[in-house]
Automatic annotation (TrEMBL):
Pfam families: Ada_Zn_binding. It comes from Brevibacillus brevis (strain 47 / JCM 6285 / NBRC 100599). This is Ada DNA repair metal-binding domain-containing protein. GO terms for molecular function: DNA binding; methyltransferase activity; zinc ion binding. It comes from the Bacteria. Keywords: Activator. Residues 40-86 form the Ada DNA repair metal-binding domain. One of its GO terms (biological process) is regulation of DNA-templated transcription.
Length: 99
């Protein structure tokens, strides 16, 4: 009895899409992952490897409020501020801005 042929493996990334937050605060699908992560309740954005975000995720929080941005300009346009932990210099510049 012949062995059934297995289907050719598909490139896993070819069909993957990512949900990102746009400048207008609407979600959209993208073929490329976001470069920055954000936290919706406090409107903070930061690096994907931010130690503060990783600690919060490890403790079981944060994940359901997590959003992703294509770039920094989009995060700022959506009304988010830099993270004080992983983007310290940008945070200090943001904090010094007049209200």
């Amino acid at each position: 009895m012949p062995t059934p042929k297995k289907p050719a493996p598909q490139d896993a990334d070819s069909a993957k899409t990512y949900t990102l937050l746009g400048a207008d605060r609407s979600f959209y699908q993208s073929d490329t992952p976001g470069t920055l992560g954000g936290y919706r309740p406090r409107k903070i954005y930061g690096r994907l490897d931010c130690p503060s975000a990783i600690r919060a995720i490890t403790r079981g929080g944060y994940v359901r409020h997590r959003v992703f941005f294509a770039d920094e300009a989009t995060a700022i346009a959506a009304g988010y501020r830099p993270c004080a932990a992983c983007l310290r210099e940008k945070y200090l510049l943001w904090k010094a801005l007049p209200l």
